[in-house]
Amino acid sequence: MSATLWFHSRWRLRLALLVIALAGTAIPSSAAVLISVDKSTQQMSVSLDGVPRYQFEVSTGRAGYGTPSGTFHPQRMAVSWFSREYYNSPMPHSIFFRGGYAIHGSYDINQLGGPASHGCIRLHPANAATLYALVKSAGMSATTIVVSGSSPAAVRRSSSGLRPAGYENQYRQPDFYQRRSGPGQPFRP
Question: Which residues pair with 54 in a beta bridge?
Fold first, then answer.
């Protein structure tokens, strides 16, 4: 074997090893989901491959129960979940991103738009189902959750003001959960 042929075959081997190494670090072909939550405005924006898709009103942690800020990735997901810490509260379409903190649906829809939770990020149940389906489709590894801002001092009401007839009753809490919180006490997971 000549020196030139030996050099070229060695070079090809190095190139092949480099291609194999880089193939393991390639970006997945699935869509990237970015969920941005601004605690200051109590708003969530959802982008798919850099294109804004949804804007949702949320509730983050109320006074004494902060929602953690930072960049996270989903750790686990559950279509139906009940809080073990807060009175077996329903947490439909949960996307857990840091220990017990999750993005999930809430039947306490009158509180959306202001801080009201024990630290989770609450959404309207229909919006939570939409978000859950999007994250499930794209994959947890392709999803990034960014929580920023600080909680507003005063609880704000929904910016929309008017809601369609039957809206409240369609997503109201089951009577079982209202009774567990005591007479005259609203149930707030």
Answer: 46
Q: For domain 33-151, is the CATH number 2.40.440.10? A: yes
**Cα radius of gyration rounded to whole Å, the chain:** 23
Q: How far is CA 115 from CA 18, 59, 156, 158, 173, in A?
A: 51, 5, 8, 11, 19
What contacts 19, CB < 8 A, 6 or more positions away?
A: none
Q: Is the pLDDT of residue 57 over 80?
A: yes
* Beta pairing class for 51-57 and 121-123: unpaired
Tell me the pTM: 0.65
Q: Is 51 helix (H, G, I), strand (E, B) or coil?
A: strand
Mapped onto helix, strand or coil, the DSSP state of residue 96 is strand
Q: CB under 8 Å to 171, separation ≥6 — which residues?
A: 107, 109, 124, 125, 126
Phi-psi region for residue 155, left (φ > 0), alpha (ψ -120 to 50) or beta?
A: beta
